[in-house]
Design brief:
Number of helices: 15
Strand order of the largest sheet: 1-2
Radius of gyration: 22 Å
């Protein structure tokens, strides 16, 4: 972290301690806050020098459309904590803030229990993980694909149109991934069945069931062993081993490489490679135009 980011983080930490002194955080969390602050200050949420919080420095403010997730005032605005209507951001946010204590620990956030995804679908009874999903849900959905195709008014599936472009779901859309068919973050073909949610054992089926909400890392013990996972997954001895997890009863070779022991991450990686090859082949043999992604167009 650079000097600018470190100074910003220290100022934010002082602000958190002021909240404790005022009795707000102490009332909600009547125990030693120092370990929590230490975990938070090394997290991405506290990195005031990161692109997530400095992208708009030249503009002088964080636009309202981005402020809910890229500034503390914007998030509080979205919650309605600032006295405005909840569920929307009414104005741009000032520069220089991150996701700090007050962002998630306030009266409005404490009551937040449901989240509406970009698809328009609302998932309720979430509890504290709703605070995570406000931002970690993406900004597009599978429904936007059909909407864009309809708006372009193309004659067939293989027609090239300048009105069609890449739809970027934006950053870590983990909430949409977790709630699969309920959130419709990915594209869903008509007539097919999709899992509504990634089901896991009770207590480990939410964002904060597996991730420490302050460090954002997978929960571990002193030996950096993901003990919460290793109790059931014998092949896991380090955090890096999490990608090797595969249910014992999962006897489907999803990627067709003949390996039924590799972790599901390995299956997905091979499918990604095949998808990329298919996209390249489609451009070369069907449309006669390469499919190109440029983040600036």
């Amino acid at each position: 972290m650079g000097r600018k980011g470190l100074c910003a983080a220290l100022l934010i930490m002082v602000g958190c301690l002021v909240q404790v002194a005022a009795g707000f955080a102490e009332e909600m969390y009547p125990y030693d806050l120092e370990p929590i602050i230490n975990r938070w200050i090394s997290s991405g949420h506290a990195d005031g020098a990161s692109e997530s919080f400095t992208h708009w420095d030249a503009e002088g403010e964080v636009p309202a459309g981005c402020a809910a997730c890229h500034s503390s005032p914007g998030y509080l605005d979205f919650l309605g904590y600032d006295g405005t209507k909840s569920g929307q951001v009414d104005k741009p946010a000032p520069l220089g803030t991150v996701v700090n204590c007050l962002t998630c620990h306030n009266e409005a956030a404490a009551w937040l229990d449901e989240v509406t995804f970009p698809s328009g679908k609302t998932v309720g009874d979430l509890g504290p993980e709703a605070r995570c999903m406000v931002c970690h849900q993406g900004r597009e959905s599978g429904l936007d694909v059909d909407a864009d195709i309809a708006a372009a008014n193309v004659a067939g599936d293989d027609e090239v149109s300048a009105d069609l472009g890449f739809i970027n779901i934006h950053y870590y859309a983990t909430g949409a991934t977790l709630y699969g068919g309920q959130a419709i973050g990915g594209y869903q073909y008509a007539g097919r069945s999709y899992d509504l949610k990634f089901d896991h054992v009770e207590g480990y089926d939410t964002c904060i069931g597996c991730h420490d909400p302050y460090s954002l890392e997978v929960r571990t013990n002193e030996s950096v062993r993901p003990s919460e996972c290793a109790d059931c997954h014998a092949r896991v001895s380090t955090v890096a081993d999490l990608q090797n997890i595969r249910m014992n009863g999962s006897m489907v070779d999803y990627d067709g490489d003949g390996d039924l022991r590799e972790g599901i991450a390995g299956e997905i990686a091979t499918l990604q490679e095949k998808l990329y090859q298919s996209i390249q082949s489609y451009g070369a043999t069907v449309t006669g135009n390469p499919v190109i992604y440029d983040s600036h167009t």
